[in-house]
Specification:
- The protein is built from ten helices and 18 strands.
- It is α+β, with helices and mostly antiparallel strands and 416 residues long.
- The longest helix is centred in the middle third of the chain and has 16 residues, at 227-242.
- The chain starts with a strand and ends with a helix.
Amino acid sequence: MIPFFAIYNPRYKYLHQVATFTLLMVMPLIFEGNITNVGAAEWGKIKTLIGPRDSLLVADPAGRIIIAKNEQQKLVPASILKIFTSLGALHYLGSDYRYATEFFVDQNSNLKIKGYGDPLLISEVINAISRLLAGLIGSATVINDIVVDDSYFNRPLTIPGISSSTQPYDAPNGALCVNFNTVFFKRTQSGYASAEAQTPLLPYAENKIKLLKPKGGRIVLSHVEKENTIYAGQLFRYFLTHHGVRLRGAVKPGRVDKSADKLIYRYVSRFSLPQIIAKLLEHSNNFTTNQLLISCGIKKFGQPGNLEKGVAALVNFAADNLQIKDMTIVEGSGISRKNRVSADQMLRVLARFEPHRALMRQQGREYYKTGTLYGINTRAGYIASSNGGSYRYVVMINTPGKSTKPVMRKLLKSLD
């Protein structure tokens, strides 16, 4: 009896049942495409690289399974999970979605900034916004305090797998964050300096650096005492002053009162959702990915955003749209070892994501995403066929000390 494997065809938008052919070691396998003369012995060599804690699944451009091992075993996906989260974001938010940040002035001449989770509020953007705000406020107006409002997301947002280290991959999430909640700096003979021309080293950040006494690199701004949100306000304050806005107060956390405060500017991100996804997949950015996850939760269940809503939204998406009922997801970036996904589930994700494969890294005829944790090495993506279409593949190595590289070398050679 031939087992069946459900796979999604984005062209016709429904699930087809595609036969999973059993590999016979005594006969050569014949398929359409560029693998016509590949025999069972070659597939057997590839499968020997897959141990009991690993999995492999490859489908041809027509969706037929050509090699599989442990494909239903739940394993730690690491960062290939970002493909699934990106797909969920495209579903809930839409390709045209752009993040916003709002700026208000209250009756006490305080400037209020309300964040909505934009993951790409970077220095260049803040500089441009501040230049525009300076024109709207005018040189005659004196601003008292800068009030920063991050209430669109619940606090604190504790992401499983994220620690309290100063490493960029441990940056916390929030509704109003700048530069991925990190500060990039270098050590100098006289002390410390910014390591990037577009970002000043503010005293607020330098004080933390002096306490930690690192040699250089990046530090993370935490949720403790709303450090990350206050830093966002401090960076806006710097650029506003640079562009001539007169400021005499402090940066304080607070709330916008939309019934009383006057909206003076609504910044709409210059980055579309596909552009954000391309950047997060290229740099494997955990912070950006979980910003998208939380935004999906708000779209599905309403504000304020939090991890639980985001996870529930993706679980619902998997069940309703991919017919995946038992994927274990605790966050969206793959940094947590509590995430558990099978290769056949990831293959369904790849089938739906295929129209967006150009957002992934490309090397030769391969579009791919890798995942790495200690003892974990994964890779998933597409290999272009000369006859048109793409082979879809998932390689999940959960055996410490092993890599996806030897598997990929043989796959690329066999699928030539």
